[in-house]
Design a protein that fits this description.
Elements: E1 3-10, E2 16-22, H1 27-38, E3 46-50, E4 55-57, E5 73-78
Parallel strand pairs: 1-5
Antiparallel strand pairs: 1-2, 3-4, 3-5
Organism: Dyella nitratireducens
Protein name: Ubiquitin-like domain-containing protein
């Protein structure tokens, strides 16, 4: 099992952390950890974006199978609902 060192930040860039994660973690694992650690609103849905490639990290698939590399910045963004 591989590990990956990434930077996780909020979309407004007020919160940021450099972490090493198992490659088996999913996007949902990262989002849940950010919500818990940074006390983000729990009634909001979030997406995780790999800013290096401008792609959404799928919530149920392992990070290492989605091309996440050391040094990537993963951004937690609230999903906006139009209405």
């Amino acid at each position: 099992m591989s590990e990956v060192s990434v930077i996780i930040r909020t979309a407004d860039q007020t919160r940021k952390a450099e972490v090493t994660l198992p490659g088996s973690h999913t996007g949902a694992d990262v989002i849940q950890a950010a919500v818990d650690n940074w006390a983000l609103p729990k009634d909001t849905d979030y997406s995780l974006i790999n800013t290096r490639v401008a792609k959404t990290i799928q919530p149920t698939i392992a990070l290492d199978t989605q091309g996440v590399q050391d040094g990537d910045v993963l951004e937690v963004q609230p999903m906006l609902v139009a209405g």
